[in-house]
Amino acid sequence: MTRVLGWLIHRLELPPGWMMGLAAIAWAQAKVLPLHILGLFGDIAGGALVLAGLAVSGWAALHFVLERTSLIPRTKPNTLVTGGIYRFSRNPIYLADTAILLGLILYWDALLCLPLVPLYMKIIERRFIRREEAVLREHFGVEFEAYAARVRRWI
Question: One of this protein's Pfam families, by short name (predicted)?
């Protein structure tokens, strides 16, 4: 039973789930302890970050589709995607998820949850990025090393 549960968690635990879980905490904070500090600024800045995050995520995902390689973490890629938005960030989808989380926190005026943003980044780096980079390093070798040397992990 434990083995099956571990396999299921390994397959279902994905970065958007972490982002949505932390966003749910921020939403709950906004409902239980509304702050009403940011007002219209929070609505505009938060909405802009969510929209920008969705746009970046879609643009980044499109590169994977066009390169015919997998978007799913923990799968072996057949292509090292380095063009388009990947010239500026090695992890634009995770960066987009971070922007969405920050945007929701600002929109909901859940300022007590701002520490969830760096927490999300640390979780994603430890649970996903390091493993993905190890697979890329193993699979693409010098090509990945050169890419990693010229493009930052986040921005």
Answer: PEMT
Question: Is the pTM for the entire model greater than 0.85?
Answer: yes
Q: Would you tell me the crossing angle of helices 92-107 and 116-124 to the nearest 10 degrees?
A: 160
User: Per-residue DSSP letters for 96-140?
Assistant: HHHHHHHHHHHHTT-GGGTTHHHHHHHHHIIIIIHHHHHHHHHHH
Q: CB under 8 Å to 61, separation ≥6 — which residues?
A: 71, 93
Report the distance separating Cα 125 and Cα 12, nearest Å. Answer: 17
Mean pLDDT of the 59-88 span: 89
Tokens at 82, concatenated: 């380095």
